[in-house]
Amino acid sequence: MAQHPQTIFHETTLPSPSLLQSRREIFHAVGVKAQLAQLRKTGRYTCFDLKWQPGVYDDLSRWPCPPPVYWDSDVAKWIEGACYLLLDRYDAEVDAAVRAIVDMMRSAQGDDGYLNLYFTVIEPEKRWSNLRDQHELYNAGHLVEAALAHSKYYKNDLLLEPIIRYVKLIRSVFGPEEGRRHGYPGHPETELALLRLHAVTGNQDAYELGRYFIEERGNPTGQHGQHYYDWEAEERGDSPWKRPNSYVHAYDHFYNQSHKPILEQDTVEGHAVRAILWDNMVDRKMYLTGGIGAMLNWEGFGIDYFLPQGTDDGGCYNETCASIGVMMLAERLLHLDLDSRYADVMELCLYNTVMGAMGLDGRSFTYVNQLASSEKDNDRRESWFETSCCPPNLMRLFGSIGGYLWDYGSPAADEVFVNVHLYTTAEVSFETGGGAKVSFAQLSDWPQDGKVSFQIKAPSTLKTTIRLRWPSWSPDYKITPSTAEEFECVGGYIVIPSSYTSKHSEFTVDFDGFAPRQVYPHPYTNQHVVALARGPVVYCVEDTDNPWEKDHFRDTGLARHGEIQERSRSMPMPLGSGDQAEKQCHYIELQAKGWTRKHEKGSDTRGRGRGQKSIRQAYAAEKEADNEEAVTLVFLPYYLRANRGGRGMMRVGLLRE
Ligand SMILES: [Zn+2]
């Protein structure tokens, strides 16, 4: 079993400076404490004392999910992220807060091992009564992940021990055995946490439960001949017509992927299904920015190619957590099938939707990541959300980001390999099976520049193979020192064989593809728009740089031809006092020729009203040059949007000639 990023991230260090390192620095300087303050302010942290919180618990009317139902997971994700950051750098305040919340969690646990806030304080009689909607098992999964991170940093089982007791209790309730419930988490997550718990501790309950949840999911006749969620709804006495907003029809379980057994799909189609699901998602349901989920209603996928840019166009959701999930899935798939298409998407998500979800102040976030603003949904950030899964999820991702950069190992005593998925400035150190120490470093200014230098430090007797992802947007590359032999490219990875690395412990690869390029959505999206990208970074326009804009760039086009100019710019990172106050975020601004479309306000009916032009006249008039005004457009990376005030107007895809 290949190691998980959460287990091995600390073997990689990120010496400054790099964009990834600067993001983790924001969490160290501000993010981890700002999120703690929000958890305290909103009652999430304090509620583990199991006391009724007036003002916090007063309105629990939201059905089927009053917000406190998933508070455990917000706190658990914060603990997980905090422990990753502590491993990188000690902070007394964060350490004290982790210790205190762990003590509270230990006291909050029931004698039988049960550990869930909502069903202990608010509705104790409703335990296990609504797995479909109420996040009980989902919370347990995040507690498991928090406990693993905690035991890794603190090297004790103060959190792991109660969580293992909780897992034992859950195993006694759920499973294939007669008399146990044949249910599974409404929100999948617990499964991977349990399997990770098993991988780290060998815990058998965790393995059996994780496997059972996966195998049982979507069984149409699992509980007394019924789908489990239909059975439990009947047990609750719910009307068959009462359904959550996220369900399009009653009994329609696609929202939580339990409409069909997962394993049935896998065994019928084998490897192909995995590829098909991935390709379907990436080729037909993913935005240019790596965002997924066009539909607000169920925070999820629409039909193929339904990818409107914003609310005005028909909707765009793109939750931050969804793109973090894509990164996690891509990282897992790379272990099974080393193919650059997974790593390309992992990088696309990282440098666009995921990185853009936190402001440079470390205290402001986006939950929804639209590609265009509107009057209804301005492009702005919030300090917290009622459902606040995204901020602590970002923290645990950036806390463990070292684990996503590469895959490495020692398949035989005299062999080592490193497969590099993401480029930055970083160094990994590990030991071979024979105990030899190996370190491998990369140095680059990615994603601003495509030049990456590598250095291998390993005993000369070792055969070292390096595989470098060749991004799909890069037309060519050059490796120095050069060699007479051609490098092989397998699955989108350039193979640097041991015959080369034995002669050159230092080498450089220079990827082309950092000239700005125009990118278009698939023609089936019916969007006649164009966007700019440079390397893995997608760009957008904002009113801050284009102050003439009045209507969210709905009438703005990008010239097909014409030079695109690059300018080195920087933006302050307002991290508060001390030396952090001076930090700047460097980026490359693009300037290009564009135009704005003029049309008479109120003429939207195009000739249907009295005295209006006929449709033909209106279109003809629109084509005339004097209906367009030339402008110079200023673009900035999408990940830097909404950091400088302004009027909240932004767009990625502009009209195309
Ligand atoms: Zn989220």
UniProtKB/TrEMBL annotation:
UniProt domain Non-reducing end beta-L-arabinofuranosidase-like GH127 middle: residue ranges: 418-496
Region (Disordered): 596-616
Domain Non-reducing end beta-L-arabinofuranosidase-like GH127 C-terminal: 522-652
Domain named Non-reducing end beta-L-arabinofuranosidase-like GH127 catalytic: residues: 63-401
Record SUPFAM superfamilies: Six-hairpin glycosidases
Biological-process GO terms, alphabetical: carbohydrate metabolic process
Official protein name in the record: Non-reducing end beta-L-arabinofuranosidase
